[in-house]
Amino acid sequence: MSGKKPVLEIRGLRTQFFLREGIVTALDGIDLTIYENESVGIVGETGCGKSMTAYSILRLVPHPGRITAGSIKYKGSELTTLDPDLMRSVRGTMISMIFQDASTALDPVFKIGSQLGEVISLHQNTYEKGELEKKIVEVLELVRIAAPKEVMRMYPHELSGGMKQRVMIALALSCSPSLLIADEPTTALDVTIQGQILKLLKGLVAKTGSSMMLITHNLGIVAETCDRVCVMYAGRIVEDAETFELFEHPKHPYTAGLLTAFPKLGEKKAELSVIRGTVPDLMNPFKGCPFVDRCDNAMGICSKQRPSRVEVSPGHFVSCHLWSGGESPDGG
Amino acid sequence: MADLVSYVIRKMLLAIPIILLATLIVFLMLYLTPGDPIIALAPPHASVVELDAIRDKYGLNEPAYVQYGLFLWRLVHGDLGISIGAATRNLDVSDLIVQRLPRTLELMGIGLAMSYSIGIPLGIFSALRHNSLGDRGVMVFTLLAYAMPSFWLGILLMLLFAVELGWLDIAGTTGGFGSIILPAMTLGIGNAALTTRMMRSSMLEVIRQDYITQLRSRGLPEREIIYKHALKNAILPVITVIGLDIGWFIGGSVVVETVFSWPGIGMLITTSISNSDFPVVQGCILVLAFFVIAGNLVADILYAYVDPRVRLG
To answer: Domain containing B225 — which CATH number?
Structure first.
C-alpha cells in the first residue's frame, strides 16, 4: 500500500451519544485509511457503527451524539476541527454519500431536476438555465437513466426504487467527489436491481477515479466490489485486510464466524451456522475485547485488556489477543 | 400540471353534492326548530283563516319537496327571501347579508392572516430550538392562548388597549385599522396557538428525515435546507387544516362580533335568532356553509399544489 496516497485517514476516532440514561460509545477508537482509487468495504452487523463512521466523517452525527476524540484527515487536512462553513464545502464536492433507502432520502415535494440542479449550481456555480439543464441531463445519463429529460420533470414518488437509487448516485456523483461513501446502497432494492446498481457504482467509481467506502452487511457484495475489507464489531474495527486475503485467511474469530454464517451456494447444511450470543451493550464500558462473551477461543486476558491492532501479514491487521502474542493459537 | 388540473376539477365536482346537502339541512331547519314564525308575522289575535292566508302567501301550504324545489330555484337566482324580523321587515335577506358580509370577511381575513403569520414562524422557531428556554416559553404561551375563551380574552384586551392605554377603539367599526385590530386578535390568537403547535411538531418530524440529512451531506447551506426543503414539507399539515380553521373562525366570529359590536354576519345571526327571523338565519347559515366548503376546497387545492403526491388520490 506504500505507493498509494491516502484520501482519508482516520485515527482513534471516538463518537459518543450523551443520553439521559448514560453515554453510548458508538465508535470506540476507529483506525481506517482509504487510499486513492480504492474501494473499501465496511462490514458488520446492525448497530456496530458502520453508518456512524460515515456520519462522523461528514460530521453529520445526529444530536445528542458527537465526535469526542481522534482525528479524520482528508488529503492531509483535519476535518474534525474544520470551520463549519468550510466543512460544508467539503460535503458534496470532496466527500459525498449515498443513503441506504432512496425512497426516504429524496425530498418528496421537489422535482428530480430541481434537486440535482440545486447541488450542481451550488458547487459548480452554474446558474444559467440551459447550461444547468445540460449538466443535469449529463449526470442522469451517467447513471444510465433512460429519458433523462422526462425524469428531470418527475417527482420522486413517480420513480421506481432502482431509479430513485440511480438518482441518489447521480446526486452523490454530480460534483465528482474524491471519496464516495455508499451506505448499504442496495439493501432496499430487489435482488435483480441490486446487481445492476452495484455494477453501475463500480463502473462509475473506476471511471471517475474516486475512492469508495462501501458499507454493507452482505459479504457477497464486498467480495464482488471491494479491494479491501474492514470488519467492525461493537464500534471497533476488529480486522482489516485485502478482500481475498480476508476471505481466505480470516484471523479474528468474529470474521471467521461471519464467513461461516454466510451460506454458500451448493453447500448443504442441516442448520445455518450462527454466532451465539448478542452484541454487548454499548452503554456499559468494557475493559477487554467486546467479542469475549461470544468467542469460543476466549482466554483470561480477553476480558481484562483491550487487544491492540497488530499486522499479522503485510496489510492484514487484526485486534485480537490470539494474535497479539505473535503466535497463532492453532498453528494456522 | 395536467394532474393538478384534473385534481382541481374532481374536487370542485365533489363540492357540488356537499353544497346541495347544506341547502337541504338549512331548509329543514325551518321544520325542526320550535316556534312558528307565522304567528310572529301575523297581527295579534289573527284568526286561523288569516294565518292560513299568510302561509299561502309564503308558499308554506305546498308539500315539502315543492317548497325545497322553490327554495333552490330562488337560491340559484340569488333570492334568499325576505326578512320577517321586526326591525328589518320586508327587506331582502340577500341585501342584508351583502351589507354585513364584507365586515365579517375582513375580520376573518385579518384574523387568519394574523394567526398564520404568528403561528408559522413561532412554530419554526420552537422546533429549531427544541427544548430550549425559548421553546418552553412558546409552549406555555400557546397553551394559555388556546385555553382562554375568546369572549373573556376579548374583554381583557379591550380593558388593556382601549380603556387603560387608549390606543385602539373599544368596539364597533370606524373603518380604520384601530377598530379591527382587537377583534381580529381575539379571533385569531387561539388559532395562532394551534398553528404554532402543529408547525412545531411537523417541523421536528421533518428535520429528522433522511432527506434532510441527505441535503446536509451535499453541503447545502442550513438556511436553504430549513426554509426551502423542510418548510415546504412541514407546512403540509397546516395547509390541510386551513379548511377546518375557517369553520372555527366562523363559529368564533359570532362570539367576537357580539363582544365588540362588530356589524358582521355573526351579529346578524345573533339578532335574527332572538327575533325569530328565520329567512335571515337561514340565509346567513347558508352563506357561511358555502364559505366553509369553499375554504376546504381552497385548502385541498393548495395541498395538492405543494405536495404532488396527493394529486393522484
So the answer is: 1.10.3720.10
The domain in which residue A162 lies consists of: 102-176
Establish if B12 belongs to a structural domain. no
Whole-number percent of chain A with pLDDT over 70: 94
What is the value of ipTM here, to two decimals?
A: 0.86
Angle at A91 between CA A90 and CA A94, to 5 degrees: 55
For residue A36, tell me if it sits in a domain. Answer: no
Calculate Rg over the CA atoms of chain A: 21
Percent of chain B having pLDDT more than 90? 42
Cell readout for A77 is: 487536512
Please give the Cα distance from B242 to A173 (Å, whole number). 41
Nearest CA of chain A to the CA of B121: how many Å? 21
Query: Which residues of B fall below an 8 Å CB-CB distance to A?
Result: 208-211, 213-221, 224, 229, 232-233, 306-309
Instruction: State which residues form the domain around B37.
Output: 18-76
Whether residue B146 is found in the same domain as residue B192? yes
Prior bond to B149 cis, omega within 30?
no
Chain A residues with CB inside 8 Å of B219's CB? 88-93, 119, 122-123
Residue B2 located in a structural domain = no
The whole-angstrom distance between B211's CA and the closest CA on chain A is 4
Calculate the dihedral angle through the C-alpha atoms of B258, B263, B264, B269, rounding to the nearest 10 degrees: 60
Cα gap A38→A28, rounded to integer Å:
24
Given an 8 Å threshold on Cβ–Cβ distance, is B219 in contact with A93? yes
Q: Is-contact A176 A3, C-beta < 8 A?
A: no
In DSSP terms, A91 is beta-bridged to A95
A36, A7 in Cβ contact below 8 A?
Answer: yes
Instruction: Name the nearest CA neighbour of A57 among A38, A37, A47, A42.
Output: A42
**CA distance to B18, B33, B66, B69, per residue, from B24 (Å):** 10, 14, 13, 10
Q: Which residues of B touch A93 (CB under 8 A)?
A: 219
Interface A:B, Cβ pairs < 8 A: 72
The alpha carbon dihedral of A244, A249, A254, A256 has a sign of positive
Q: For residue B233, what are the contacts with CB-CB under 8 A and spacing of at least 6?
A: A107, A108, A109, B206, B209
- For residue A130, is it within any domain? yes
Nearest to B260 by CA among B171, B139, B173: B171
Instruction: Check: CB of residue A32 under 8 Å from CB of residue A292.
Output: no
- Cα–Cα distance measured from residue A265 to residue A250, given in angstroms and rounded to the nearest whole number: 20
Answer yes or no: is B263 within a domain: yes
* Rounded Cα gap, residues A242 and A236, in angstroms: 18
The answer to whether B218 contacts A96, with C-beta atoms less than 8 Å apart, is yes
Is the same domain home to B149 and B267?
A: yes
Burial environment of residue B235 by CB neighbours within 10 A (0 to 12, 13 to 18, 19 or more): buried
**Interface touch A97/B217, C-beta < 8 Å:** yes
Q: Is the domain of B26 the same as that of B168?
A: no
Q: Residue A51: helix, strand or coil by DSSP?
A: helix
Q: Give pLDDT tens digits for A303-332.
A: 888 888 888 999 899 998 888 764 444 443
Mean pLDDT score across all residues of chain A: 87
Mean pLDDT of B227-245: 91
Does residue A167 form part of some domain? yes
CB environment A5-35: b (16+ within 10 A), e (fewer):
ebbbbbeebbbbbeeeeeebbbbbbbbbbbb
Asked if A171 and B233 come within 8 Å (Cβ–Cβ), the reply is no
Total domains in chain A come to: 1
